[in-house]
Amino acid sequence: MKVSNRYIPMLLVLFVTGCALGPNYSRPEIDVPVVYKTDAPWKEVTPLDHVDKGHWWEIYEDPALNKLEETAMAANQELKIAFARLMQVQTGESLSRAGQFPRIDMAGSASRERTSADFSTTAEGTTGNVFSVPFMLGYELDLWGRVRRSIEAAEADSASALADYQNVMLSLQGEIARNYFAMSAIDQESSILNQTVVLMEKARDLIKRQYDSGRVSLLDLTQAETQLAETRSEAIGLEKKRGELENALAVLTGQPASNFTLPSRPLTQSPPAVAAGLPSSLLERRPDVAAAERQMAAANARIGVAETAFFPSISLTGSAGYASTDLVDLFNWSNRTWGIGPAISLPLFDGGRNNANLERTKAAYEESVARYSQHVLVAFQEVEDNLHGLEVLARQGTMLQQAVDKAGEALKISESRYLHGRVDFLEVVDSHRTSLRTQRALVQLQGDQFTASVLLIKALGGSWEEKKGNTGN
């Protein structure tokens, strides 16, 4: 049967492009809650890791923290490692794309050879030179979509690696903020202890004068000195914790701990309030969720690559160049050579290798689906944990503030009663301890509030303050 000329281009296109084996990717359905427990709205998770997370730490309005974050972005070694890893994966994408194009190599050679007498036209062996400059061509016809599915998988791998890099960056930023606020809370505790030490020294001096004049007993003086020594010891103990946090910040910002110091910055402000009606779409920016989703897409594409192994592979091979027995005449037109033809590889028996590889890629895809689902579940948990934590800590802080106020009043009353000789000094000691304990507990709770707010930002993939044009909605 003769094929009409008008159908020849169509057949050639079909022959060259072929089809793409394997399932086309679609994100699996995952059951998600309609609202947060805090009544914040929610919608289906769609990766928006490309959305700029911004300098989210600026919502704390702390210049020292801003400087630490900026330094870390330029000097942190773990971030540099993650970036180098990203570059490696993106290079893999370029390698996959190269499969769309022919490969041309030059393989020049020069040799001196002897021809056997049986293969010589003169019935005698001959010796001569052979010079050749051939160009070799190779091109695989992507009939079954192996190259296209490989590129699809490589693109997904590259996007996943970018999300992993962003996850390292977000984790780094969060660790800096957490350590910084923990150190600020310790600075505030130290400030309270040092102020208390000053007051206790004055009280001790007063009691010493009263003891010298015989108005109080040695027991009162001993109790005052004991309380003063205990408070000084607690202040010294905080220096160790602060030093460790300062050294941790040095490493996070890519600096030697021996050369890194931060001045005391007591924690006096409250963390920024979470906006009412927190948009659930913020969670879509989480880089770990995006990375898991892209890994799922890559695993799906590799199923198609595995399926192509069951079908024939057709490649076009060719060569063109020059060959001569005399170097001077090598590039004469009459010494040109060429050849072209297809190479077909058809799998007949492989001992089950291709089938096993296909089953392995399908199992890898199922694993990636489960991993993606787990990341989504963990994302919900972390948002809920920190939203709930901030709400509980706020209520707890209100109660602790009342306790601090009442403990301060009780201390003043005890000191007045002691000065008027109505009670012994032991009551004053107890009042001091209670007042100091509640003040330190309040500062520690404020530090926990900052930590929870940082963890909420990390759980959301960035600040809860969406910027116009960067919401993806």
Summarize the structure in words.
With 473 residues, the protein is an alpha+beta fold. It has one domain: Outer membrane efflux proteins (OEP) (Up-down Bundle), CATH 1.20.1600. The protein has eight helices and five strands. It has helices at 8-17, 63-75, 77-97, 146-212, 218-252, 287-307, 353-419, 425-460, and strands at 103-106, 109-115, 126-140, 313-324, 336-345. Strands 1, 2, 3, 4 and 5 form a five-stranded antiparallel β-sheet that branches. It is elongated and about 140 Å long. Mean pLDDT is 81; it is low at 6-17, 40-52 and 466-473.
List the helices and strands and how they pair.
Blueprint: H1 8-17, H2 63-75, H3 77-97, E1 103-106, E2 109-115, E3 126-140, H4 146-212, H5 218-252, H6 287-307, E4 313-324, E5 336-345, H7 353-419, H8 425-460
Antiparallel strand pairs: 1-3, 2-3, 3-4, 4-5
Helix pairs in contact: 2-4, 3-4, 4-5, 4-6, 4-8, 6-7, 7-8
Task: Note the main attributes of this structure.
alpha+beta, five-stranded antiparallel sheet, 473 residues, 8 helices, Outer membrane efflux proteins (OEP), 57% helix, elongated, disordered C terminus
Helix content: 55-70%
CATH class: Mainly Alpha
The name CATH uses for the topology is: Outer membrane efflux proteins (OEP)
Terminal CA distance: 57 Å
**CATH architectural category:** Up-down Bundle
Topology pattern, helix = H, strand = E: HHHEEEHHHEEHH
- Tally of alpha and pi helices: 8
Q: Give the CATH superfamily.
A: Outer membrane efflux proteins (OEP)
